[in-house]
Amino acid sequence: MIDYVARQATKVIRLDCDSPVNGTSRTSYKTYFDPATSPHSLRNFIWHIVKEARVQVSTLLSSLIYLERLRSKLPVLSEGLPCTIHRIFLATLIVTAKYLNDSCPKNIHWAKYSGLFNVTEINLMEIQLLYLLDYDLRFSEEEACALFAPYMSIVARQASTRASAVDKVAKAGKARALSQEQNPPQPLTPSDDVPLAPCPVSRPISLVRGLARRLS
User: Fold this and answer.
1) Where is this region: Disordered (predicted)?
2) Same-domain status, 97 and 153
3) Would you say residue 183 lies in a domain?
4) Model confidence over 35-77: pLDDT tens digits?
């Protein structure tokens, strides 16, 4: 689920990692949030927050609704820094948690969970998101089902694949057991004309046995 949410979040806004900002290259930002190598990649960021805040599945899944609403409201040519997606996701998750739950962490706690943003930044993120969403967080069952359907289909395919793999393993095990019943292995018997050599006892074992006899 975290991978799916991360992919959907990256669709909200296009990232510009190369253009300079106030004369400063964005290369450092790109490296810091690189999805392949950085511990601050969006996927790791989401996983860390979900773990620390103990985010419920329903809350994480419902954040997709507001991510999609925000994507539809932003101008097509909108661009942001690599950390912009982190800000968008965190603000969306906070708003979702507050809307769906009677009790949820305060922004000071979200700042601690994120490890990247302070309380002032998080307060601003939340206000900006609510403004862009026209302060309307209501959603219908139809809207939720439409946005959840792609993820549910992925889960269904994965479950089907796992069930198929388990079925193949079970059939292979049954076939092997049946084959062994029909053709039981013959016991190995030593040849009469070849005497069996005694198994050598390693020196450490001999020493231990000798000490045991002395102590007995």
Assistant:
1) 176-197
2) no
3) no
4) 554 557 888 898 999 999 999 888 998 999 999 999 988 887 7
The CATH number of the domain holding residue 95 is 1.10.472.10
The tens digit of pLDDT for each residue in 89-133 reads 999 999 999 999 888 899 999 999 988 899 999 999 999 999 999
Which residues, in sequence order, are CB contacts of 54 under 8 Å at separation 6+?
Answer: none
Boundary-marking domain end, from 138, 153, 179: 138
First to last CA, the chain: 64
Distance (Å, whole) CA 210 – CA 175: 50
Q: Residue 126: which of 113, 112, 110 has the closest Cα?
A: 110
Range of the domain at 157: 139-169
Distance CA 153, CA 159 (A): 10
Q: Do 12 and 63 sit in the same domain of this protein? A: yes
158 pLDDT exceeds 80? no
Contact 80, 13 (CB under 8 A): yes
Residue type present at position 140: S
Structure tokens at 59: 């809350």
> Is 93 domain-assigned?
yes
Count structural domains, the chain: 2
Nearest alpha-carbon partner for 93 in 63, 132, 64? 63
